[in-house]
Write a sequence for this structure.
């Protein structure tokens, strides 16, 4: 046997599992599909962890109690979440930072300003790349074996128990296994299959950009569901999907491709019409619904329109937007129908009601008699120069996954496996049926990665004792 515990994946959840299993005394082999320079999956693009806390704590200000965290999650998922597992994640988020620090993760002082998350989220010093590197250094120091460019194509099971994994023609056995190999967001064919062809004859998935790693093909996820009939959960079209700069690269654009001015202006589609309330809620609670909204528009494209009043109130994009001194000129530069564009903007401007504008709170600046309404931060777009940013759907990770419980065990016909566990994107759909709130993906990966690693070590050790 190569190791007590086999961990398949190389991102945050996989690393948490590997570290916990090793700390519990198990020998561990981690298989990362990517080359070393691309290791870490989507975790390398993350920035923070959403944390529950009942009072100010080191890098977190004020308090963010369990119930508020739960209500935030409940709101963005519209109830499509397993409350017991969600609360498990929330509680675990309050006590994991000391363990993370022990493995080299550093946090930066509280942030203030337009992100509204100094109270709710702990930011990694150096971002996700630094976190991933710290975990790999710690893993190697503790004796975790790491193999790169080692994609697992299939696994062997016997009566719901893990037996072996295959990397090419190589068969690797272990006493227990943790699956943490990500979703299927990089698998264009699967995305096409999930999203299908719409009424306009378009294949929406053909216009999706992938914000993270190209290595998340969903190979093992499909293998477990189709070939082993593992219990699945989630809708294959639901994902962490952000409206990003349409000029972003196909893969690995990461955080710098985000366009954060949506809530401070209006968004129009190819037909120059608005289609959703831009001011529904704070941006960290709503940014991850806009990719899906844009995906449902003609051509899977839209434009965020702001004026100079909004400049300086949001994280500026890496690349400048299209700029014009008049709205008609902006419409022409964006290639939008000028008459329809002006009709949309004039109707919006006329519907804005006076209020006290404050982008740091849910203010009273709203529209009246307009559909869709803009419920907060609605100010007439009148101050030149004007800016337009083209948006496309950017998929971060998919929510279809393996059903699990508080033990992180993979389930077959409702029965938990004795030695096969799951963490991270491969099970995030248990908590995230739809929607997203900033930092919760890392909370899920950290909580279930640690549980899976600990359980896998125990399962492997029990098996060894039984064979002794």
């Amino acid at each position: 046997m190569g190791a007590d515990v086999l961990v398949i994946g190389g991102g945050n959840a996989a690393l948490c599992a590997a570290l916990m299993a090793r700390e519990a005394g198990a020998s561990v082999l981690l298989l990362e599909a990517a080359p070393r320079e691309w290791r870490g999956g989507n975790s390398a693009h993350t920035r923070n962890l959403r944390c529950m806390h009942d009072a100010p704590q080191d890098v977190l200000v004020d308090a963010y109690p369990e119930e508020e965290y739960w209500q935030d999650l409940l709101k963005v998922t519209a109830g499509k979440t397993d409350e017991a597992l969600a609360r498990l994640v929330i509680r675990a988020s309050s006590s994991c930072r000391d363990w993370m620090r022990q493995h080299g993760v550093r946090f930066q002082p509280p942030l203030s300003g337009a992100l509204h998350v100094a109270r709710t989220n702990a930011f990694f010093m150096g971002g996700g790349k630094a976190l991933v590197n710290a975990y790999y250094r710690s893993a190697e120091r503790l004796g975790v074996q790491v193999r790169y460019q080692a994609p697992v194509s299939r696994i062997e099971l016997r009566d719901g128990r893990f037996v072996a994994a295959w990397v090419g023609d190589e068969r690797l056995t272990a006493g227990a296994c943790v699956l943490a190999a990500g979703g299927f967001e990089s698998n264009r064919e699967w995305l096409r299959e999930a999203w299908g062809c719409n009424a306009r004859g378009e294949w929406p998935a053909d216009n999706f950009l992938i914000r993270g790693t190209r290595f998340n093909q969903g190979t093992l996820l499909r293998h477990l569901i189709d070939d082993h009939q593992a219990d699945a959960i989630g809708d294959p079209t639901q994902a962490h999907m952000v409206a990003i700069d349409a000029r972003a690269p196909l893969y690995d654009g990461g955080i710098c491709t985000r366009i954060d001015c949506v809530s401070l202006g209006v968004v129009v589609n190819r037909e120059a019409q608005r289609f959703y309330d831009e001011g529904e809620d704070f941006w960290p609670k709503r940014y991850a619904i806009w990719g899906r909204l844009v995906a449902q528009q003609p051509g899977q494209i839209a434009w965020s329109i702001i004026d100079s009043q909004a400049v300086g109130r949001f994280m500026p994009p890496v690349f400048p937007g299209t700029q014009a001194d008049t709205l008609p000129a902006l419409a022409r530069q964006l290639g939008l129908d000028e008459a329809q564009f002006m009709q949309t903007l004039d109707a919006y401007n006329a519907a804005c009601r006076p209020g006290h504008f404050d982008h740091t709170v849910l203010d009273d600046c709203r529209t009246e008699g307009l559909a869709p309404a803009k419920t907060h931060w609605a100010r007439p777009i009148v101050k030149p120069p004007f800016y337009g940013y083209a948006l496309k759907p950017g998929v971060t990770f998919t929510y279809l996954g393996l059903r699990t419980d508080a033990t992180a065990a993979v389930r077959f016909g409702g029965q938990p496996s004795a030695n096969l566990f799951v963490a991270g994107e491969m099970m995030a759909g248990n908590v995230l049926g739809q929607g997203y709130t900033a930092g919760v993906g890392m909370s899920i990966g950290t909580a279930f990665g640690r549980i899976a690693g600990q359980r896998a070590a125990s399962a492997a050790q029990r098996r060894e004792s039984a064979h002794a």
Q: What stands out?
A: The longest helix spans residues 440-467. The mean pLDDT is 95.
